[in-house]
Amino acid sequence: MKALYNDGSVAEVADGDVVHVIRHSAAHIMAQAIKRLYPEADFAYGPATDNGFYYDVDLGDKKISEDDLPAIEAEMKKIVKENLKFSTFELPREEAVALMEERGEKYKVEHIGDLPEDARITFYQQGDYIDMCVGPHLTYTKALKAFTLTGVSGAYWKGDKNNKMLTRINGTAFATKDELEEHLRLLEEAKKRDHRKIGRDMDLFMMRDEAPGFPFFLPNGMILKNTLLDYWREIHTAAGYVEISTPQIMNKQLWKTSGHWDHYKDNMYSTVIDDEEYCIKPMNCPGGVLVYSSKPHSYRELPIRAGEIGLVHRHELKGALHGLFRVRCFNQDDAHLFVTPEQLTDEIVGVVNLITSVYDKFGFTYHLELSTRPDDSMGSDEDWEAAEAGLKTALEQLGMDYVINEGDGAFYGPKIDFHLEDSLGRTWQCGTVQLDFQMPQNFDLTYIDADGEKKRPIMLHRVCFGSIERFIGILIEHFEGKFPTWLAPLQVKVLPVSEKSRDYAHTVCDQLVAAGVRAKVDDRDEKIGYKIRDARSTDRVPYMLIIGEKEVESGNISVRDRSNETVQRELSDFIVDIKAEIAERR
Fold it and tell me: Is 332 an active-site residue?
């Protein structure tokens, strides 16, 4: 595919950039359609994204809802059919401002004011629509062959809650109609797997207006959560970690020393105790630092690997809250490693291998990103260069592919991020390894080296699951609530066909429970077909045991698994097999 670049040249687009160019062009065509339908529209930002495109629009007193999207989409199709040519031009700053003022584009004028003095200011035009943009774009509108609009939401100008709320119109586009149809199929599948609906059906968790963004875990959800944490504790004990717990509330001075107050205070909750300001922790790391600094350490003690399932609170805007994926309080499976420079590479390698083993357990594949120094950072250039080099060395020793994610590191250090892929092909950033020279320096952490001198340890921050709550949401959608047996809140549901087999069904269930299997009897006065459908679609159990008069007479069971095949078995044999399946976490 060919594209028009902002120097006026037309050239072939690299395969990896084709969809980006298509989506960016779709955003401009959508904006032109909106302008035709709503002449008062004033446009802010309209980029392509990993999943599609959007445009933030100020419509004054007008409101757009999802009911208006078909009309906008129809107007876009007209523009595509008109086969308008894309052209590009560049203007000096003063002329660019004058053009945008003449067209009533106040957000573009403000955007020009934010650009560096030496920035090139380029524009793209199709028909009567002109947009400030760096491109590249399609050469003609007819090249946009497969697109759809997907939703309407709100967004603050420049992402700042103090600015005006704009209307964000979302869409997606692909190179072919087949790709678009597959994407829409996956969206429908994602709706079926929505963790909020499945969470309600399976009684895993709930959200309440009395506590927006603060999830309530129900008994089934607590079984799932605790099973995950039991697994976490087992593998970390085996890997040489110790577990600690630190307070949820600590004074503001601690957060100033750690750097969080200057870099993160807008997301922190605070309170006053004894006339002194305290903060509810948004991260576990300063508490872990205080534990390390509570006594002297020798080089012989290092590495120290201290894990914590810490409850943290972070302020999120109400409009950003989304089930378990975006909440205001969650448990984070943090660990903080204090290491010598000589141990650094081996410890990073160990962490990466541990996280890999966790994702393998759930059937996730992943890719790695190395996130480098952000604009809002602390520390010297030398420390950052050494930290980034340390992470690169570990990845190269592992022989693992990774991409550089410029400027997305934590404020105190660079990081390796694990982006896992679920069963629908969606990616989620969960695990991370962050290298930190800053906090040991801010808190004057030391150890006594072999030469008797005080040295500064290097600190590694890392998580496997990330937010436990968010990871549970991902697992719900990944498995569609059909968890592996070891993880399922209810592992076996015993279904008596009639009242005549009810007593034997309870005897079977009692033996399962005594063997450590999570089981219960559905002894409602319902037909067996209804009970089977309910166990499959609501409880989503790995195994159903169907107990009729034949099973009562022979003293065995009929086992139905998720393949919907039913086989007769001896109860004792089934118990042996399911216990092994659970113990091995298959």
Answer: yes
**Is 429 tagged catalytic?**
no
Catalytic residue among 133, 285, 329, 430: 285
Mean pLDDT of the chain: 95
pTM here?
0.87
Sign of torsion over alpha carbons 504, 508, 509, 514: positive
Rounded Cα distance, 565 and 530, in Å: 17
DSSP 515: T
User: Which is catalytic among the residues 314, 328, 518, 531?
Assistant: 314
Annotated active-site residue 461? The verdict is: yes
Q: Which of 106, 114, 111, 109 is nearest to 95 (CA)?
A: 109
What are the residues whose beta carbons fall under 8 Å from the beta carbon of 532, sequence distance 6 or more?
495, 544, 546, 560
Integer Cα distance of 390 and 51 in angstroms: 33
Write down the pLDDT at residue 383: 82
> Which of 42, 131, 333, 334 is flagged as catalytic?
334
Distance CA(148)–CA(154), nearest Å, equals 19
Residue showing tokens 């876009």 = 76
**Contact yes or no for 247/230 (Cβ under 8 A):** no
Active-site residue identified among 32, 125, 332, 491: 332
- Find out whether 226 and 234 touch, Cβ atoms under 8 Å: no
Can you tell me which residue has the tokens 């629009």?
57
Distance of alpha carbon 474 from alpha carbon 482, whole angstroms:
12
Residues 323, 450 contacting (CB under 8 angstroms): no
DSSP single-letter state for residue 518: -
Q: Which of 168, 415, 493, 560 is catalytic?
A: 415
Q: Distances from the Cα of 422 to the Cαs of 89, 142, 427, in angstroms?
A: 43, 34, 6
The conformational region for residue 564 under phi > 0 = left, psi -120 to 50 = alpha, else beta, is left
Q: Please state the separation of Cα 384 from the chain's center in Å.
A: 26
Task: Fill in the amino acid letter for 381.
Answer: D
Helix spans in 420-548 (H)? 438-442, 468-479, 502-514, 528-534
pLDDT in tens, 316-351: 988 889 999 999 999 999 999 999 999 999 999 999
Catalytic pick among 137, 193, 461, 470: 461
Is residue 41 classed as helix, strand or coil in its secondary structure? Answer: coil
| Residues 435 and 391: beta-carbon distance below 8 Å | yes
Q: Give the C-alpha distances (Å, rounded to integers) separating 40 from 22, 35, 106, 300.
A: 26, 7, 12, 70
Instruction: Copy the structure tokens of residue 118.
Output: 């030496």
SS3 label, residue 176? coil
Given pLDDT bands bounded at 50, 70 and 90, which one contains residue 239?
A: very high
- Point out the catalytic residue in the list 108, 336, 478, 518: 336
Is residue 278 a contact partner of residue 427, using CB atoms and an 8 Å limit?
no
Which helix (H) or strand (E) element contains residue 125?
strand 122-126
Model pLDDT, residue 523: 93
Compute and round to an integer the Cα radius of gyration of the chain.
29
Q: Does residue 314 carry a catalytic annotation?
A: yes
Long-range contacts, stretch 158-164, CB < 8 angstroms, 24+ apart: 161/317, 164/58
Residue 367, C-beta contacts closer than 8 angstroms, at least 6 positions apart = 401, 402, 403, 419, 421, 427
DSSP 328: S
**CA–CA distance, 67 with 90 (Å, rounded to integer):** 38
